[in-house]
TrEMBL record:
Family: Belongs to the glycogen phosphorylase family.
EC number of this enzyme: 2.4.1.1
CDD domains: GT35_Glycogen_Phosphorylase (cd04300)
A Gene Ontology BP annotation from the UniProt entry: glycogen catabolic process
Listed Pfam families: Phosphorylase
Protein name per the record: Alpha-1,4 glucan phosphorylase
Cofactors (names): pyridoxal 5'-phosphate
Comp. bias (Polar residues): 7-21
Modified residues (N6-(pyridoxal phosphate)lysine): K673
The keyword Transcription belongs to this UniProt entry's keyword annotation: no
GO molecular function: glycogen phosphorylase activity; pyridoxal phosphate binding
InterPro entries: Glycg_phsphrylas, Glyco_trans_35, Pyridoxal_P_attach_site
Gene that produces this protein: malP
Amino acid sequence: ALLRGQMDTTDMNLPSPTPKSSDPARLAADIVDRLTYRIGKDATVATPDDWLTAAVLVVRDRVVERWMESTRETYRREGKRVYYLSMEFLIGRLMRDAVTNLELVGEMQEALGELGVELDLIRELEPDAALGNGGLGRLAACFMESMASVDIPAYGYGIRYQNGMFRQELSDGWQVELPETWLEHGNPWEFERRESRYEIGFGGHIERDDADNCTWKPAERFWAEAFDTPIVGWKAKRVNTLRLWRAEPIDPLELEAFNRGDHMGALQDSMKAEALSRVLYPADATPAGQALRLRQEFFFSSASLQDILRRHMAQFGRITSLPEKAAIQLNDTHPAVSVAELMRLLIDVHNLDFDTAWDITKRTIAYTNHTLLPEALESWPVPLFEQLLPRHMQLIYKINARVLREARATGTFDDAQVAGMSLIDEHGERRVRMGNLAFVGAHSINGVSGLHTELMKETVFKDLHKLYPLRINNKTNGITPRRWLMQCNPGLYNLSREVTGDSIMSDLDAMKALDTVAEDAAFQERFAAIKRANKDRLAGVIEKRIGLKVDPSAMFDIQIKRIHEYKRQLMNIVETVALYDQIRSHPERAWAPRVKLFAGKAASSYHNAKLIIKLANDVARVVNADPATRDVLKVAFLPNYNVSLAEVMVPAADLSEQISTAGMEASGTGNMKFALNGALTIGTLDGANVEMREHIGAENIIIFGLTAAEVAEKRANGYSPEEVIAASPELSQALKAIESGVFSPEDRNRYADLVAGLRMSDWFMVAADFDSYAAAQRDVDGIWAEQPRWQAMAIRNAARMGYFSSDRTIRQYGREIWNVIN
Ligand code: BZD
């Protein structure tokens, strides 16, 4: 009996688990059961948090059967599995997701109701799991849900950060970062897998035997321990696994040191281990550059690959069939060290020769690129890399020699081009280029929108694309309609179904039927009433969080995303100042009442981004206090933007701001969430906005500004913002007001440098696009004044977003990259 895990139990007569009933009375009894036996509390003294935990445990029980069945089915079928490696999974709350996908909403409401507990109230207590920065992390979460929904066997692999994205508070309008403690009350969704742990090494040296076989002898070693969270697909068709790694010391207490009296030294290993999975780096564009970040990247890459190879060998017993049975997708370059680690495992552990290992690696790995910003591309100093991962450095040199040989053999590249393709950047301090490593080690490199993919071919990977012309492909991003329509906007979901029928959650294209009622006055009225109810709810949240009263009948104009100069929140604020000025000068005009809403976090070290947050708050303070504009303009910055806040803001938006400098936003996914929820977009021809315009129709989206080609041309031909500013009285006025301290009387110079940056270089083309943006905003006012037209446009937006379901995206990955569906 002690060895049951290793025994063949097929003909033993083990009792089977009791299937879990979904009858409300049974659910209620189970909830009380969990409360009593798992939490150890009596119903009379249970806190709301206790009820939530008990309810989660009961829901989780209903997931487990489907989970095990999904695992068994893939095993029996000898199916291929997808492994999604990502430093970030921005999953948010899981309760509503699980309950809706299990189709247990009514039953759970009834069960909890019987116990005097309201599902909607305890749901709000669930911590928002923010194991990611922004779009890249949220995309990974949407993909996990979609892979389960379209029935692809998949594992997400990442890090179980003890502290995820920081909590943002505002202190006098300045961002303050506080640690987020999402695990404070435990995490009832996860299963700790003490048996699934792997050794992770760093540093040390390489031993070579007589046959030239290498063994890496790391100086430091840790355990990676697995924590599994089930991810339920739509209608619980399939349940997949999100496996997150926590670092553990191998030697928690070095007794020898302790006994010598070195009590702190005895804990050194524990502390070093703890640091590995302690905290998410809160920077979403500039690479962290610290050794700890590279250690995190290797830690989770190595653990995941060891797990993948163990599973493969246990089932198939032959390493060479790996590419037929496993597809590994790298979410950006953060797990790019996997290319070298897979090579090491294949060569040093599985004893393959270099060529065979290289062939297997390339056929197994694929890479998704999420940015072209040159400063965002990861690279590591060679000395650091060598010191932490000596064997991997050796393999990278070997891979590099082979790639450069292939490049030279074509006879089409000059030395500068070959140097650009090298895995080692030789300009100045030598560095390992992670983008190039991911590119050469993958059979597929994809961009995340049509425009981004084309630019990738023309810029960062120009020569590698010439060398390997079949590798780059596009997979335009998507969002899961379960979370981003059904759950966050049940009003619109239910109304839509009256027209579309019940299939929209598995076939978002069916929303198209709404086109037929876009002009119908009665339908428009109901559509508008739902928007209004969502706005009432958001108005309540605004008042509660920052004490500002806003009029829910005004246009809600929203920009929510990470704060970045290329996303141009600054352009939006400057236009707000210009509008404020106009309203004060012409109070007699019929201004469309607006509430301008902002939310988003700035990387802790990003000075200008933090200043932009302060500016939004300074402008808000002045505008909101001015009786002259009281009825037509309000400005608010909501603190601590996260997935849960997005779920309230997105359904309440009338206007969605997607105004990045063309060529700089790889795709955007917030843009898709807003349009699906019936907001109009004001935006540039950037990222997925381009494709949204194609699907929604140019007449239903407000596009302005320079194209990516025009931006590139302007930059190349010497652009002078000062001339542009001088030619625009509105812009001149607004900039003068900001730089002279109108919004910062207590510190008149606060924005001098920020504005000087616009005047002197304006890399992000705020001035160049300003007039066209302001004019587009006045067009928006004009449409708002014709409500039937606005409503028709909004309905057509919701109707035509079917293409942007992440189910579509995932099916394309499944067919064209992973080869797991036909
Ligand atoms: O990825 C974003 C892009 O900026 C968006 O345009 C795109 O829609 C999404 C999804 O493809 N990139 C990120 O969110 N990047 C990061 O969060 C990040 C995190 C750590 C280090 C570097 C970048």
